[in-house]
User: Which sequence fits this backbone?
C-alpha cells in the first residue's frame, strides 16, 4: 500500500484565494499585535496545573488517605481529568510543535502522552499525518476507522448492529485510552510500517522499542505499584484504575468525535485519479465543527479544541490564540462562501453527535 501522503491530492483550483487571504490576515494579526504564535506563560501555568492534577492524586493513593474508599476513588477520578488535561493541553500542542519555539522542549512535553499510557511517535503519525491531512476521508483518516464495531462514515459498510451504536458507542469510547495502553499503539506501529509511513526496518525497531519500553513503564507505575504499595485492597485498585481510564477515554473521545462525526460535517471521497474536489483548507472546514465558543472555562480545560476549525487550519499556532483568530477565520470563510460549522454548546455538540451516530447506523 502506498503512503497516505502520495495516495490523494487536493485541488488547487477550487477557491484558491481563500486560504491565501486567511493566512495573510492571521499573520497580520500576530505581527500587528506583536504576539508570538507559540505558547506563552499561560500554557506554562496550565501545564504545571495539569501535571499536578495528575501526579498529586497519584501520590495520595499510597498514603493512609487511601483507606477511605471515597477519597481513593476520587483520586483516580482526578487523575482521569489530569490525564485528559495533559493530553489536550500539553502533549497535543507539543507534538504539533506549537507549545514552544524550542524544538527540544516540544519533544519533551510531547512525551507526556507516554506518561499517561499512549505513545507520542505513533500518535503523531495517526494524528498529525493522517487525520490532519485527510480528515473524514474513508480509508485514510484512522479517527473514523473502527472496523466493524462503529460506523463513522456513510461510505463504510453498515451492519445490523450499527442501528444500536448511538447507545453502545459511549461505552466503547470509555475503553479508548485503555485499549491504547494494551494494543492500539502496537497495531498502529505495524500498520504504519505496511503503509510506508515507517520507512525502514531500523526505524520500525526503534518505534517498537519505544512502544514496548514506555508501555512497560506505564503498567509498572500506574497499576503494579498501587497494587503492591497502596493500603487499599487490590480489587479497589483495579476499580480505581478502570474508572480512571473509562472517564479519560470517554472525555477524549467525545471531544474529538464531536468535532468531525457531526450532521454538518462532510465525508468527501476522491475521484478516480485520487484527487479531492476542494483544496485542503476548504476540506478542513467542510469536515470539522466548532462548539461552545462562549465558554472560556470549558475552552481553557479542553485546550482550545472546541475551536477545532482553527486548530486544523493552524495546528502550528498554540491553542491559547484560537479564540482570537476564530473571528478572523469565521469572517473570512463567510466572505468566500465557505461553510463554518458551529454548535453553541458542548452539550448540544454531544447531542448532535449522538444523532449522527443514529443516522449512520440506520441509513
Assistant:
Amino acid at each position: 500500500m502506498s503512503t497516505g501522503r502520495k495516495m490523494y491530492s487536493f485541488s488547487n483550483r477550487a477557491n484558491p484565494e481563500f486560504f491565501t487571504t486567511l493566512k495573510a490576515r492571521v499573520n497580520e494579526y500576530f505581527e500587528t499585535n506583536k504576539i508570538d504564535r507559540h505558547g506563552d506563560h499561560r500554557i506554562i501555568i496550565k501545564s504545571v496545573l495539569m501535571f499536578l492534577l495528575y501526579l498529586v492524586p497519584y501520590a495520595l493513593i499510597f498514603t493512609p488517605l487511601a483507606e477511605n474508599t471515597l477519597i481513593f476513588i476520587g483520586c483516580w477520578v482526578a487523575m482521569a481529568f489530569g490525564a485528559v488535561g495533559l493530553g489536550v493541553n500539553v502533549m497535543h500542542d507539543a507534538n504539533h510543535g506549537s507549545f514552544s519555539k524550542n524544538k527540544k522542549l516540544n519533544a519533551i512535553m510531547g512525551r507526556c502522552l507516554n506518561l499517561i499510557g499512549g505513545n507520542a511517535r505513533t500518535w503523531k503519525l495517526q494524528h498529525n499525518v493522517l487525520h490532519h491531512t485527510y480528515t473524514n476521508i474513508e480509508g485514510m483518516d484512522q479517527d473514523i476507522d473502527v472496523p466493524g464495531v462503529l460506523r463513522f462514515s456513510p461510505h463504510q459498510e453498515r451492519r445490523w448492529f450499527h442501528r444500536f451504536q448511538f447507545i453502545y458507542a459511549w461505552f466503547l469510547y470509555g475503553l479508548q485510552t485503555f485499549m491504547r495502553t494494551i494494543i492500539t499503539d502496537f497495531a498502529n506501529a505495524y500498520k504504519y510500517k505496511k503503509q510506508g509511513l515507517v520507512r525502514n526496518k531500523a526505524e520500525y525497531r526503534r518505534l517498537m522499542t519505544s512502544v514496548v519500553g514506555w508501555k512497560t513503564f506505564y503498567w509498572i507505575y500506574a497499576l503494579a505499584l498501587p497494587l503492591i504499595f497502596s493500603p487499599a485492597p487490590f480489587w479497589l485498585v483495579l476499580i480505581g484504575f478502570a474508572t480512571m481510564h473509562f472517564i479519560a477515554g470517554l472525555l477524549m473521545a467525545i471531544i474529538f468525535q464531536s468535532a468531525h462525526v457531526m450532521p454538518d460535517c462532510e465525508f468527501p471521497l476522491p475521484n478516480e485519479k485520487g484527487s479531492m474536489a476542494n483544496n485542503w483548507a476548504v476540506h478542513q472546514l467542510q469536515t470539522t465543527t466548532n462548539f461552545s465558543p462562549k465558554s472560556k472555562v470549558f475552552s481553557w480545560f479542553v485546550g482550545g479544541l472546541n475551536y477545532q476549525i482553527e486548530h486544523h487550519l493552524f495546528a502550528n499556532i498554540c491553542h491559547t490564540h484560537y479564540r482570537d483568530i476564530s473571528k478572523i477565520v469565521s469572517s473570512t470563510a463567510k466572505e468566500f462562501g465557505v461553510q463554518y460549522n458551529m454548535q453553541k454548546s458542548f452539550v448540544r455538540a454531544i447531542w448532535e453527535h449522538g444523532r449522527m451516530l443514529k443516522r449512520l447506523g440506520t441509513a
Summary: The CA atoms of residues 183 and 215 lie 10 Å apart. The chain has a mean pLDDT of 94. DSSP finds 16 helices and four strands in the chain. The longest strand covers residues 289-291.
